[in-house]
Design a protein that fits this description.
The chain is an alpha/beta fold. The protein contains seven helices and 19 strands. It has helices at residues 2-5, 141-148, 188-196, 228-239, 249-257, 298-302, 308-320, and strands at 31-35, 42-46, 59-63, 65-67, 71-75, 81-89, 94-99, 108-111, 115-124, 127-136, 173-176, 200-206, 222-226, 244-247, 259-260, 263-264, 267-271, 286-289, 331-334.
Length: 335
């Protein structure tokens, strides 16, 4: 239903192939589409205008997860090299991985420096994209990936860029396979402008897994933390009549997972929550996000913020205005 309500084709020319800086655009110089969730009115802005669109005493909640260089080169038993994307670490030796090629249970893949990954079973019964793997490597998880890995990139990106290009200004806690990209346009200047407008900023941590989801594939379980201070800030903002604006779908997922009877409580663990219009939103009033691909499950989350008609108008405006998609692209505010 969601895919049918917001159906479109994404032209390849609208895929952001390089970071904005490599295109001669500042981080905070990317474009910003603004959608009024009630009226459906659309405005075309630049992200540097973002602080002006918030009200004093609104609360902006950001994800402080740092992106790991989670793409490794693996080798099959016949010596064939394939990319292996590390999505999530469940334990020190049990990881969720995405082998980029044919795979089956029992396959043993050789990893750098004498490591190995044995594919155990599919994460989802209906898809063989993600696998649980028993992993044996010579160093702790984060150090190993930083020594031998690269940033995950897909075919639309035209080159290899350093992991710094995949970090947001908020990155503090290593753990995401892919960048929480809604936070990428923020700069020190943006944060200064927010302070001047008396907009508060709070953090959550949610380590995002790989996002190359197949059509209709729901999000996987991801680890998250909502600190006590953030829970207090969210609840106080609502009591004072302010809005809670989430920077990215990861923040929505974390906050809504921590919502108990209308309030947010300090929480940590694994969330399997899928936010839909039927489930609704308990604590999040608006969202800053990127543009999502046709049939992506994130579109269902956006339908919890705005009607299909509002989103359809927004995406038609983004397509006709030639906004850019993906992690190095433009952003969309729905509030």
């Amino acid at each position: 239903m969601i895919a049918e309500e917001i159906a479109f084709e994404l032209p390849s020319r609208l895929e952001a192939r390089r970071p904005p800086e490599a295109r001669g655009v500042a981080r905070d110089g990317v474009r910003l589409l603004v959608s009024d969730a009630r009226s459906g009115v659309v405005e075309h802005r630049t992200f540097s205008d973002f602080p002006k669109l918030l009200r004093p005493f609104d609360l902006l909640v950001v994800n402080d997860s740092a992106t790991l260089p989670a793409a490794l080169e693996a080798r099959r038993s016949d010596g064939t090299a394939i990319p292996l994307h590390v999505s999530t670490r469940m334990t020190n030796t049990l990881w969720v991985v995405e082998p980029r090629g044919a795979r089956r249970g029992g396959d043993v893949l050789a990893l750098p420096s004498g490591g190995s990954a044995t594919l155990l079973e599919r994460v989802a019964r209906e898809s063989d994209r993600l696998w649980y793997a028993r992993v044996d490597v010579c160093e702790p998880y984060v150090e190993y990936l930083h020594r031998y890995g690269q940033a995950i990139r897909y075919a639309y990106v035209d080159g290899c860029y350093p992991i710094a290009d995949y970090q947001t200004i908020f990155a503090r806690v290593p753990g995401s396979a892919e960048m929480p990209s809604a936070g990428r346009p923020f700069t020190a200047r943006t944060l200064a402008d927010l302070r001047e407008r008396e907009v508060k900023v709070a953090t959550v941590t949610l380590h995002a897994g790989v996002s190359s989801a197949e059509a209709h594939e729901p999000p996987q379980a991801e680890p998250f933390v909502v600190p006590h201070a953030t829970a207090l800030a969210v609840n106080a903002t609502h009591r004072d009549g302010g809005r809670v604006i989430a920077v990215g779908t990861t923040v929505v997922r974390a906050l809504e997972s921590a919502a108990m009877q209308g309030d947010v409580v300090a929480s940590s663990g694994w969330t399997e929550l899928v936010v839909t219009p039927e489930r609704g939103l308990r604590v999040t009033d608006g969202i800053l996000t990127g543009f999502h691909e046709p049939r992506a499950s994130h579109l269902a989350m956006l339908r919890a913020f705005a009607s299909a008609e509002v989103l359809d108008a927004a995406y038609r405006a983004a397509l006709s205005g030639e906004y850019l998609w993906h992690e190095f692209g433009d952003v969309h505010l729905i509030a």
